[in-house]
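Hypothesis: this fold can be encoded by more than one sequence.
Test: take the structure tokens below, design a sequence, compare later.
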């Protein structure tokens, strides 16, 4: 990555849980190579452990319990407008954004998925990869479209699956590569805009 100058993209990161990718994105946002400024963290639950990283870095966060998708999305949209968000990064966000929301936002929405898409869309990827004795797995950053885990692939990184791997080990190895892959993918998409 080379240092680029100019305005940084106001970014919102959506989470539901642990938030290790959020943590790495916050670190990236503070680096000299960063093209983003994280303005807002959105979570669908107050129990998301990752909220701690927003709090630590004094980033505003917004929690919406998603009782009614249409209403929640309208409320989230208001927040995005308030913070003039021009990039959304989904990072372990367990809700599916509606087609209406994606079309209305108009700017890039990225997601990170722990498999070599188009293989293993959806949940429990590591279990399925191991069950099928795959030789490789990895992670993919892609653009979000109304079809789950199916938008244009921005970057993908592959690792070998070892005989000795179990779900926990594979998850740990893949998370480690994700923490580099997501910033790289953001850099790629924003430096080409
Ligand atoms: C990551 O493996 C990501 O690929 C998937 O959900 C997981 C989130 O982990 N979408 P974390 O909350 O960022 O630690």
């Amino acid at each position: 990555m080379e240092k680029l100058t100019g305005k940084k993209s106001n970014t919102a990161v959506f989470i539901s849980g642990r938030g290790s990718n959020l943590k790495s994105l916050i670190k990236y946002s503070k680096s000299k190579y960063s093209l983003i400024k994280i303005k807002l963290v959105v979570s669908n639950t107050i129990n998301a452990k990752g909220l701690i990283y927003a709090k630590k870095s004094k980033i505003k966060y917004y929690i919406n319990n998603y009782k009614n998708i249409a209403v929640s999305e309208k409320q989230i949209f208001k927040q995005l407008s308030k913070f003039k968000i021009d990039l959304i990064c989904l990072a372990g966000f367990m809700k599916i954004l509606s087609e209406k929301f994606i079309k209305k936002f108009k700017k890039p929405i990225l997601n990170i998925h722990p498999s070599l898409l188009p293989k293993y869309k959806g949940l429990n990827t590591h279990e399925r990869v191991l069950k099928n004795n795959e030789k490789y797995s990895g992670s993919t950053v892609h653009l979000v479209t109304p079809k789950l885990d199916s938008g244009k692939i921005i970057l993908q990184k592959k690792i070998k699956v070892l005989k000795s791997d179990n779900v926990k080990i594979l998850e740990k190895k893949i998370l480690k590569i994700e923490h580099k892959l997501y910033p790289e993918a953001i850099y790629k998409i924003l430096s080409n805009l």
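The chain has a mean pLDDT of 96. The helical segments are 20-29, 51-56, 69-82, 99-105, 125-131, 167-191.
Hypothesis status: open.
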